[in-house]
Please model this.
Amino acid sequence: MQTLRDSLEEAQKNGVAIGHFNVADLVLLKAVFAAAQELKVAVVVGVSEGEREFIGTRQIAVLVRSLREEFDFPIFLNADHTHSLDKAVDAAKAGFDSIVFDLSALPFEENLRQTKEGVETLKKINPAILIEGEIGDIGTGSEIHERVLDVSKGLTSATEAKRFVEATGIDILAPAVGNMHGMVKSMVTGETRKHLDLERIAQIKSAARVPLTLHGGSGTDSEDLRKAIAAGINLVHINTELRVAWRRGLEEALARQPDQVIPYKVLPLAIESVRQVALSRLTLFNNRRV
Ligand SMILES: [Zn+2]
Model:
């Protein structure tokens, strides 16, 4: 069966990116899987520490594995933003395909030292697991923020990226290239969009020579995303856009059927709302025609 490493190599070769979508329940998981199935493209399901606490680390691992096996489909599972080695170990033992071991809040040298230790520990549990490290500041919280975070001071340099990758042994790097987690209201309405430092992405790619992840993809200008993928981004994270669609779909479903109490008659509209967003982002990441 195809591994996440295989899919990343294929994406790099074809000049496309794999979509990474966070899920917290079955509505989101079904929507993401349906979108990927429709386009027949590999997809990564992500669960943050909070999402894992809600859905269950071992439970989501079994769900995603069951989809992969039953449909013989390249759907993978990532432990998103894991801040402690204990939680990373739990995810590795549960059979996750990858872990974002995120110590980016620490000073650079300390981040480097602890990430290296983490890679060694986690690869002992599963030598095939992919570990993603993170440097720079891209903010926290995939939600609606009051104001735009100034990310200009925490950008990743190509020199740092190269040193970090070589010293830690990480498989994937998440750099700070103008991206940020969450969206502001004007991004939800589409009045404003995030823009990326495309030149920096290209420099980091040629220095680091590993797959690159773009976090906080929600609300990013589509043309910037296309160019970022061409410059070397191999994975794009989308969370807030799905959460907005989840809420809107749910509200609409409840409003349309005020007396309905059967979950499987209410929730399909929420699934459809999320599926459309995932489908449109996957279409873009995979260079497909709309
Ligand atoms: Zn992220």
Observations:
- The chain is about 50% helix and 15% strand.
